[in-house]
């Protein structure tokens, strides 16, 4: 089974290298004296993950990912890869030995021969402006810049709780229980920040089955945040999350994180759009209302790992590894995976319902929003309707490893502009430009505005 291809060609190297944005426009950097510490919250895949037992970096290097064979971990639970376990309930108990260390300042490739900037440029700009970077797990009163690395695979409510604990520690070392912070939140990090503003550290969705039971936000977290800079945040969810669950994530030619890895990540289900008519469309561009929060639809229509092709391949591998018990093993894992996906879909729906309760007019935190509007961005997953047969999903990847979105709209290449501006956000400053999602933190224009607003 082709889970990850780690053969990095010269072409791939050039594509990743082209992601960097040269530093420009900062000949006279002002010295910044923010009265509140700043916390950078990265997006998905933006934090390093390290094996706590071996010290090996599992995520953070492109060429030597330790998750090259996730099917082995799914068949042999003792093997630790990038995928999370799926057998425990509640799903929050599905933990492995990977721990986040720091946010990615760059992507290392071919054993440090080449590096691609991730959040490094933004951090360097702050350093040049006089900010002092500290360790968010060892806060001191002298530091005013923190990098919040988190396990981006896991539940986002859990991540918001951990963020709240770090803020409390900052308040403790400052000897000021009312000490505020400011957020710079990119992509998924903006969703974590939003939940924290609304509910603080409280988990308001665990144990619920009805979205109507979710309480109204008390905005307790917003009391601790003076300013928040949102960069390409999918406030209304993103069809790209379904794409990643359905087919995995292509980081570039020959580098593929399989759907057998991504389906184990609760955070992706929590990024699905709440509107069930906002993800799929027929070949004529008309919306198809299919509840993507219902696991039975995933099975009926062959979504993700439940497609006939993927599941038959998994069954063959089970039989190959365990000839005498392959059928029994694959059946047992089918039941386990179905139950896991059912619960994560429910939690995703509850999470999005909670976010939809945000009333930005009740938040005193100053909001500065950056959005991208000139890149073709996935808008709808296209289906092919066959007479006398169930409709099937038309793959959104091309056979030549380049992305092809069959139905697109304007956005930042990953998040639709409509989602970036979702929920009537009443930002104090809105800056919409030709920004590309992955490159927003390293964009000189965005950096300049952030520094000016600090």
Gyration radius (Cα, Å) is 22 Å
Give the overall form: globular
What is the oligomer described by this structure? single chain
**Biggest sheet, in brief?**
7 strands, parallel
Give the number of domains. 1
The largest sheet has its strands arranged as 7-8-1-9-10-15-19
Q: Kindly estimate the percentage of residues that lie in beta strands according to DSSP.
A: 15-25%
Helicity range? 25-40%
Low-confidence stretches: 1-25, 63-70, 109-115
Task: Describe the protein in words.
This protein is α/β, with parallel strands linked by helices. It contains 13 helices and 19 strands. It is globular. It starts with 9 loop residues before the first helix and ends with a helix.
Write the layout of secondary structure elements.
Elements: H1 10-17, E1 38-41, E2 47-51, E3 57-59, H2 70-75, E4 98-103, E5 106-109, E6 114-117, H3 120-128, E7 133-134, E8 145-147, H4 156-173, E9 181-186, H5 188-199, E10 225-231, H6 239-247, E11 249-252, E12 255-257, H7 259-262, H8 266-269, E13 280-281, E14 287-288, H9 295-300, H10 308-321, H11 326-355, E15 366-372, E16 375-384, E17 392-393, E18 407-411, H12 417-420, E19 429-433, H13 444-453
Parallel strand pairs: 1-8, 1-9, 7-8, 9-10, 10-15, 13-16, 15-19
Antiparallel strand pairs: 2-3, 2-4, 5-6, 11-12, 13-14, 16-17, 16-18
Helix pairs in contact: 4-5, 10-11
